[in-house]
Amino acid sequence: MNENWVTITAFDMPIEAHLAKNLLETNGLNAVLVDEFTIGVAWHLSNALGGIKLQVAETDFEGAIAVLEEQKKVTALDAYTPLTSPAKIEKNEGEIETISVTEELNGDKLANRALRAALLGFFILPILHLYSLLLIGRLRFSKQKISQHGHKVALFVGILDLVVLGFSFFPVLWRYLSS
User: φ, ψ for residue 127 (rounded to 5)?
Assistant: First the structure.
């Protein structure tokens, strides 16, 4: 019973990893999560560790890929996006053009990461607001799809970052200008 395990994909958040693992197990495939607890406790190490890795037995690799690909096609993934999300855009003559949900979520994911950095910066380390502004700038100039909710989050984060940075650096600027 000495099986080789192979990594299928990696996740940033433990909940996403568990959802994928449960999906595979529901379909009769054994799956394990690697680095789940480390990233759950020290989330800032996620990039260094390569995320939470979802692994299956080497013999189940093809079946696991098929299950996950099928899940991506299911429109129930729209439940993860806000109701105002433009997941489907109506074209002329009643045709419907579908936008890929994974593309759309990448922009929202970046906006939510900026929000976490801004909130952490607000309470712990104000310099994180520069990182948050960098993420918002990357979101602004990238071609990633983003939902209406993601736009609101990005706007809120940008305003919060500018206000906090303004109050943080205003005394320094005032002292410099007054001397």
Answer: -65, -20
CA dist 129 and 43 (Å) reads 18
Q: Note the pLDDT tens digit of each residue in 39-61.
A: 888 878 878 888 889 999 888 88
What is the distance between the alpha carbons of residues 56 and 168, in angstroms, rounded to a whole number? 49
- C-alpha pair distances (Å), 25 with each of 61, 119, 169: 13, 36, 52
Q: Is the pTM of this model over 0.85?
A: no
Token representation of residue 107: 């922009």
The residue type found at 17 is: A
Two structure tokens written together for 148:
């209406």
- Chain centre to alpha carbon of residue 89: 23
Secondary structure element (H or E) that encloses residue 82, with its range: none
pLDDT of residue 88: 45
Identify the bridge partners of residue 89 per DSSP, sorted by sequence position.
97
- Is the per-residue pLDDT at 70 higher than 50? yes
Read off the pLDDT band of 76 (50, 70, 90). Answer: very low
- Rg of the chain (C-alpha set): 21
